[in-house]
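ok trying again, last paste got cut off:
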Amino acid sequence: MIKKSYFIKVYNFTQVLGTIFISSIAFLLLFKAIQRYAENDSSLLPVSQLISSIFEKIIALFQLISIAAPILLIVLLFPEIINRLRNDSLLNLGESYIGTLRFRRFLKQTQQLPRANNQANVKLQIENSSVTRFNQAVRKSVLDLTQDQLKLFIKVPKEAQAQKILKEHEEQIKEHAASLYSDYIISTFERKKFSLWLIGTKRS
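nice, full thing came through this time. structure:
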């Protein structure tokens, strides 16, 4: 029975926290710049104190987020780092992060351009809706690479047409995994409810 590893379970959370951290830093710098501009602009002098007070609260909030997000990120990753140091390597942890981003980019389908007549447009809207749902599902895919095994977890879309897109690309995905990680013997896909698994075993 295939089970999600700890890395697969927490990957999406770590990605969200990373995005929150980067965004908070960007907004923090932006609001500080606006605050300095408001304080130095003489035309805004009557309201500069009010603006400064509001911005100080906003800046304090983003400072809190920029501290809390990386702490939570470290807490989430700490068990995985310890496990990798004991049983695997941090290099494979980095490879898992990079490999996940590669596969998500590879799996993403592009939307088609609008067509001229109405009947074709209706069909195109249905197709694009399926592509959107497909992209939303596979965006949660995670690759977990260790010295012994490769695990590729792909979230299966709930819509039938979106599942059809995934089914059509299974062989292509397998070939892509085999070409990127030639040290692993790649199995056939295994379906478990709304999860699709591709397992690779390290060559002896």
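cool. Helices lie at 6-40, 45-87, 90-107, 118-138, 160-168, 170-180. The chain is about 65% helix and 10% strand.
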